[in-house]
Each structure stands twice: as C-alpha cells, then as structure tokens.
C-alpha cells in the first residue's frame, strides 16, 4: 500500500484525519482561549486604562472563544453591578489594540489574536429564568407535577 493512501480500517494518515470531529474547539484553541481570558482578566483587574469611559469600571471576562487559526478572539464581558455592558463596547473596541499588545507581551504565540468583545448575557438570562421559576403560578404548576 502506498504512503498516504486510504485504508478501510481507519488507520494511517487519511483514516486518522477522517475520524476527527469538527464540532467543537480543539484542545489548543481551548488552552489559548483560557490563557487570553486570564491575561485580559489581569489587565482589567489593574484597570490602568486611559479611556475615561473605562475608568473605575469593574469588567469581568467570563469566557473567550478563539478562531481555529488563533487570529481572532471573542471575549465575553460583564460588568459587576451594571446592566449596560453594551454601552462599554465602543470603549473596549478603542482599547483593543492596546490590549492586544498586552497579550503579545505575555503569551507565547506567533501572532496575538485580534480582540472582539461581546456582552455576556448568561447571568441576566439565568436571573430571568430564576424569577420566572419563583412566580406563584409556576410554583403551583411545579408542585402539582410533583404530586403525580
């Protein structure tokens, strides 16, 4: 059998590649994304921004998702005690090049990823669901269901 040929048993280069799942991020993507999240969290904790809109704002990076080529990173952010995190997105976009420089100094990557920011609405959604579950009519339905 020649090198690189297809084997029916799934072994060899072609079989191994065919068996890879393309559904989720790779281990490398997950590792780099977590490192980016950690570095951004440290930078936000220091809060030494020159942008007046970010002065005194406590920004939490809840998750980072990175593209397969590691060139783009989307950081999901939340602000403790504030619901208007979307109003901070333009300011975060302005400081993104500086944040990318901070990443480049800290991470061991050929190219620091370009940063994009999205509001993390998961906590708001969870609080909304919790409030719905505590409504009297929902509690009554849940109690009726338990009796069955």
CATH fold category name? GMP Synthetase, Chain A, domain 3
The total domain count is 1
CATH superfamily: K homology (KH) domain
CATH class: Alpha Beta
Number of helices: 5
Low-confidence regions? 1-20
Q: How big a fraction of the residues is strand?
A: 5-15%
Shape, principal axes of CA atoms? flat
* Fraction in helix: 40-55%
Radius of gyration: 22 Å
- Head-to-tail CA distance between termini: 64 Å
Strand order of the largest sheet: 1-2-3
**Number of E-state strands:** 3
Biggest beta-sheet profile: 3 strands, mixed
H/E series:
HHEEHEHH
CATH architectural grouping: 2-Layer Sandwich
Secondary structural class: alpha+beta
Mean pLDDT: 81
GO molecular function: ribosomal small subunit binding
InterPro entries: KH_dom-like_a/b, RbfA, RbfA_dom_sf, Ribosome-bd_factorA_CS
GO biological process, one term: maturation of SSU-rRNA
Region (Disordered): 1-28
Short description:
The chain is of the alpha+beta class. It has helices spanning about 10-20, 25-45, 90-105, 120-135, 135-145, and strands at about 60-65, 70-80, 115-120.
Describe what this molecule looks like in 3D.
It contains five helices and three strands, in the order H-H-E-E-H-E-H-H. The protein has a single domain (12-120), classed as GMP Synthetase, Chain A, domain 3 (2-Layer Sandwich), CATH 3.30.300.20. The radius of gyration is 22 Å and the shape is flat. Helix 3 links the parallel strand 2 and strand 3 (114-119). It has helices at residues 12-18, 27-46, 89-106, 122-133, 136-147; strands at 59-66, 72-79, 114-119. The model is unreliable at 1-20 (pLDDT under 50). A three-stranded mixed β-sheet has the order 1-2-3, with helices on one face. The longest helix has 20 residues, at 27-46. It is α+β, with helices and mostly antiparallel strands and 148 residues long.
């Amino acid at each position: 059998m020649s090198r690189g040929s297809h084997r029916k048993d799934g072994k060899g280069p072609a079989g191994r590649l065919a068996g890879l799942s393309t559904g989720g991020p790779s281990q490398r993507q997950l590792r780099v994304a977590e490192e980016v999240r950690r570095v951004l969290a440290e930078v936000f904790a220091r809060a030494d921004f020159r942008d007046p809109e970010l002065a005194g704002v406590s920004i939490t990076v809840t998750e980072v998702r990175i593209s397969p080529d590691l060139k783009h990173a989307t950081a999901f952010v939340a602000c403790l005690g504030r619901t208007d995190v979307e109003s901070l997105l333009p300011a975060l976009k302005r400081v993104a090049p500086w944040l990318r420089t901070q990443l480049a100094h800290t991470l061991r990557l050929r190219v620091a990823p370009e940063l994009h920011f999205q509001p993390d609405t998961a906590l708001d959604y969870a609080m909304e669901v919790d409030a719905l579950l505590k409504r009297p009519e929902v509690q009554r339905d849940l109690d009726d269901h338990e009796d069955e």
